[in-house]
């Protein structure tokens, strides 16, 4: 014991001398005396200012220069317990969301579920939400950028031509000549709007004010801003009450003949043009400034008197007191991938249009007269991506505003609803059509989800995180717990398969010899599988089926035990101390619990519709494609619904919290084994769709090898670029095996 203590003290002295100097969230070494503790400061934009620090406290007087880890040396020696993870967030709801990321059975969510104070966000993010009405000539740099030139080729030239055409129409009406001149000026503006400003010119109307003197002795009237206070009186303190200017002119403007001509001839054409421009530029995301510029032109600039519209260079506008309506410097901003609408990422908002399109073409064009089955399948599968995002955000919102029990139930039910909807729909359709191929596709998708979560998600997170951080460390004990649960769940799922391989009868179909006859000699067979049908009643019904039911009961029980493990029994591994907030009171969540629940229900209904279209139009692809059906199942059908989770994992890795990146994949894999597969078995009991929990040899050995490899990598508590590359390469090798594998039996 004494030698162990001396060794730890020497390590502490070494850590004191070699304190980390990385201010940008880089690698911070972790000593062996205590596990890592992350203090998540969420006081500003997550991707820019989300830092993780640790503080190491010893009995000496040493004060670390940079935040490190919190751990008492004496307590560590006496208790042998890991240090506590401390979370400091803007508010209690956000802290609860961050705490849920460390709990077993809870889906990991990176984005905020509450509104962040705008003043605390970075200047880059503030620029994303600007109204394009601020003149800043000294901080924009060069205006001849690639994005601005791209604007001219994509939008500028045809918008300018539309304004020239509308100007000609207004000129022919005679009454609309003022608007014709405005259109010609705006045609030059929209060809190259950068560095120019559009202001609403002020109208010179006499303004009257009343001056109130301090001693209330005299009231003097002012006209046209000229002071008229007497000489030998104290300096007056005045309150200026200006008459509203322009109101009579606005009323007169809407009664003009030219205005009627403009609203009937010119404005509708420009409204259609700007609506198309706004839609296209919004869908492209990075050109959202163009959408803002078009929207402001449509609802503001084109509806004010033409004589009040003034176009000038931005530097000249500073010399006037006119109100700036529009001033744009750049058409493209690559940081708009961070843009949110009511807490929803802009990509998820835009992809809702894809959901609508897939439902319309799928249920309206039943006979495939206008759209092929391949296109319908692609749109239906892609529609699962935004719906998975909405389900994930709904789960995170409810969990962050509820207690542990409610959060666990919501994560266990809606957390698997995306995959279960597709699996049950495919099994039902295969049963009604008598097509066993869809059952094999479901098994391939289950295995593909396991392989992707075990190998690809941790691997790609290690690679991308390793590009920013040379080496990332994580709590090996926590990772060991997740890996152990994953190993147990994989073993339970594939136990019936191992049993059938040991005692089942191998049956081969389409067997022929080299001469093409069924005479004696060497044979070449296709579709070899183990007979688990009614013909093998003794093996299947007496041995394998009871084993499947037993495992389907034990796996959910193991999941419940894992929840109890997180909450009670071993809370010292995961315990989260919620830190004090930063003083922002009255925090409002993006989605309340009821709103999140309604969105979850709506997304689930839409998900079932998209899953129905996917299974309906997958059969032509399976029949006419030269690619193995195994490959389609383990790639497209397995990984497309997990794209939002992959994005979350990559964001965690970039912020040096690689442990959460691992937990993203582990959580999905554990839910597949402990929740989704038992539910499919239970569903098959009440409605026999022919689902048998026996997998092919390729599924079996690929999954077992993957979980053993990941358990080995997670042992040392650190990750780097090369380990991630190894995992991704192994995943790609397995995909190559599936690509060249023969089609499963029944396909």
SSE blueprint:
Layout: H1 2-17, E1 39-41, H2 46-49, E2 51-53, H3 73-79, E3 85-88, H4 92-100, H5 123-128, H6 146-172, H7 177-191, E4 196-200, E5 208-212, E6 219-223, H8 247-253, H9 257-283, H10 288-299, E7 309-313, H11 314-317, E8 323-328, E9 340-341, E10 344-345, H12 346-364, H13 373-400, H14 404-414, H15 417-433, H16 437-468, E11 471-473, H17 476-503, E12 506-513, E13 523-530, H18 537-569, H19 571-574, E14 576-578, H20 593-616, H21 619-624, H22 629-639, H23 643-654, H24 658-686, H25 697-713, E15 718-720, H26 721-740
Parallel strand pairs: 1-3, 3-14
Antiparallel strand pairs: 1-2, 4-7, 4-8, 5-6, 9-10, 11-15, 12-13
Helix pairs in contact: 4-13, 6-7, 6-9, 9-10, 12-13, 12-20, 13-14, 13-20, 15-16, 15-20, 15-24, 16-22, 16-23, 16-24, 16-25, 16-26, 17-18, 17-24, 17-25, 18-24, 22-26, 23-24, 25-26
Keywords: Antiport, Calcium, Calcium transport, Ion transport, Membrane, Transmembrane, Transmembrane helix, Transport
InterPro entries: CaH_exchang, NaCa_Exmemb, NCX_ion-bd_dom_sf, YccF
Protein name: Cation exchanger C521.04c
Index terms:
NCX_ion-bd_dom_sf, four-stranded mixed beta sheet, transmembrane helix, three-stranded antiparallel beta sheet, alpha+beta, 747 residues, 15 strands, CaH_exchang, 26 helices
Percentage of residues assigned to helices? 55-70%
User: How would a crystallographer describe the biggest sheet?
Assistant: 4 strands, mixed
Principal-axes shape call: elongated
- Class based on secondary structure composition and strand pairing: alpha+beta
How big is the Rg? 33 Å
Unreliable runs, pLDDT <50, ≥5 residues? 1-12, 14-82, 205-246, 581-585
Total count of strands? 15
Mean pLDDT: 77
Q: Going across the biggest sheet, name each strand in turn.
A: 2-1-3-14
Give the number of helices: 26
Q: Distance between termini? A: 64 Å
Kindly estimate the percentage of residues that lie in beta strands according to DSSP.
5-15%
Pfam family, one: Na_Ca_ex
Membrane topology: Multi-pass membrane protein
Subcellular location: Endomembrane system
Keywords: Antiport, Calcium, Calcium transport, Ion transport, Membrane, Transmembrane, Transmembrane helix, Transport
């Amino acid at each position: 014991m004494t030698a162990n203590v001396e060794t730890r003290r020497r390590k502490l002295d070494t850590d004191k001398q070699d304190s980390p100097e990385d201010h940008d969230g880089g690698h911070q070494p972790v000593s062996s005396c205590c596990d890592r503790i992350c203090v998540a400061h969420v006081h500003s934009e997550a991707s820019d200012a989300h830092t993780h620090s640790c503080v190491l406290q010893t009995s000496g007087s040493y004060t670390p220069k940079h935040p490190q880890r919190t751990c008492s040396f004496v307590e560590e020696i006496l208790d042998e317990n890991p240090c506590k993870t401390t979370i400091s967030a803007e508010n209690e709801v956000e802290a609860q969301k961050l705490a849920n990321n460390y709990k077993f059975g809870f889906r990991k969510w990176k984005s905020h579920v509450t509104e962040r104070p705008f003043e605390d966000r970075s200047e880059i993010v503030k620029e994303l939400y600007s109204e394009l009405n601020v003149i800043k000539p000294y901080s924009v740099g060069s205006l001849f950028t690639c994005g601005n030139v791209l604007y001219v080729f994509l939008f500028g030239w045809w918008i300018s031509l539309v304004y020239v055409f509308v100007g000609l129409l207004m000129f022919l009406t005679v009454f609309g000549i003022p608007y014709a001149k405005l259109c010609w000026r705006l045609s030059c503006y929209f060809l190259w709007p950068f560095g120019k400003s559009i202001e609403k010119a002020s109208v010179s109307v006499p303004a009257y004010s009343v001056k109130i003197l301090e001693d209330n002795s005299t009231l003097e009237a002012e006209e046209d801003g000229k002071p008229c206070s007497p000489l030998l009186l104290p300096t007056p303190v005045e309150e200026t009450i200006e008459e509203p200017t322009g109101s009579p002119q606005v009323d007169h403007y809407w009664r003009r003949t030219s205005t009627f001509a403009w609203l009937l001839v010119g404005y509708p054409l420009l409204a259609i043009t700007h609506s198309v421009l706004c839609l296209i530029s919004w869908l492209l995301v990075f050109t959202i400034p163009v959408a803002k510029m078009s929207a402001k032109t449509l609802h503001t600039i084109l509806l004010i008197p033409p004589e009040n519209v003034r176009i000038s260079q931005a530097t000249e506008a500073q010399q006037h007191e006119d109100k700036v309506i529009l001033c744009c410097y750049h058409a493209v901003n690559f940081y708009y991938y961070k843009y949110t609408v009511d807490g929803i990422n802009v990509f998820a908002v835009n992809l809702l249009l894809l959901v609508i399109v897939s439902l319309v073409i799928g249920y309206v064009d039943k006979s495939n007269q206008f759209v092929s089955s391949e296109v319908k399948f692609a749109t239906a599968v892609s529609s699962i991506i935004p719906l998975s995002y909405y389900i994930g955000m709904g789960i995170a919102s409810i969990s962050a505003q509820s207690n542990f029990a409610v959060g666990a139930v919501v994560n266990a039910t809606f957390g698997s609803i995306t995959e279960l909807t597709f699996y049950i729909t495919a099994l039902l359709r295969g049963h009604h059509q008598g097509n066993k191929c869809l059952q094999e596709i479901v098994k391939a998708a289950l295995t593909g989800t396991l392989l992707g979560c075990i190998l690809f998600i941790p691997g790609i997170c290690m690679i991308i995180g390793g590009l920013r951080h040379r080496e990332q460390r994580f709590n090996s004990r926590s990772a060991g717990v997740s890996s152990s649960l994953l190993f147990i769940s994989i073993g339970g799922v594939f136990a019936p398969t191992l049993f059938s391989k040991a005692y089942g009868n191998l049956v081969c179909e389409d067997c022929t010899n080299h001469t093409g006859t069924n005479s004696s000699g060497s044979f070449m067979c296709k579709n070899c599988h183990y007979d688990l049908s009614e013909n093998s009643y003794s093996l299947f019904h007496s041995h394998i089926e009871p084993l499947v039911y037993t495992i389907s009961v034990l796996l959910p029980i193991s999941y419940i035990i894992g929840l109890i493990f997180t909450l009670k029994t071993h809370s010292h591994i995961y315990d989260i101390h919620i830190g004090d907030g930063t003083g922002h009171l009255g925090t409002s969540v993006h989605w309340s619990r009821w709103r999140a629940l309604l969105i979850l229900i709506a997304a689930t209904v839409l998900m079932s519709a998209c899953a129905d279209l996917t299974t309906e139009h997958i059969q032509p692809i399976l029949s006419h494609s030269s690619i193995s059906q195994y490959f389609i199942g383990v790639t497209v059908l397995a990984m497309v619904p997990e794209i939002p989770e992959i994005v979350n994992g990559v964001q965690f890795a970039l912020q040096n919290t690689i442990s959460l990146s691992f937990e993203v994949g582990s959580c999905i894999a554990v839910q597949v084994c402990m929740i989704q597969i038992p539910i499919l078995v239970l569903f098959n009991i009440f409605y026999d769709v022919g689902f048998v929990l026996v997998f092919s040899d390729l599924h079996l050995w690929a999954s077992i090898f993957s979980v053993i490899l990941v358990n080995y990598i997670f042992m040392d508590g650190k990750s780097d670029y090369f380990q991630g590359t190894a995992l991704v390469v192994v995943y790609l090798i397995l995909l190559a095996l599936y690509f060249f594998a023969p089609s499963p039996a029944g396909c």
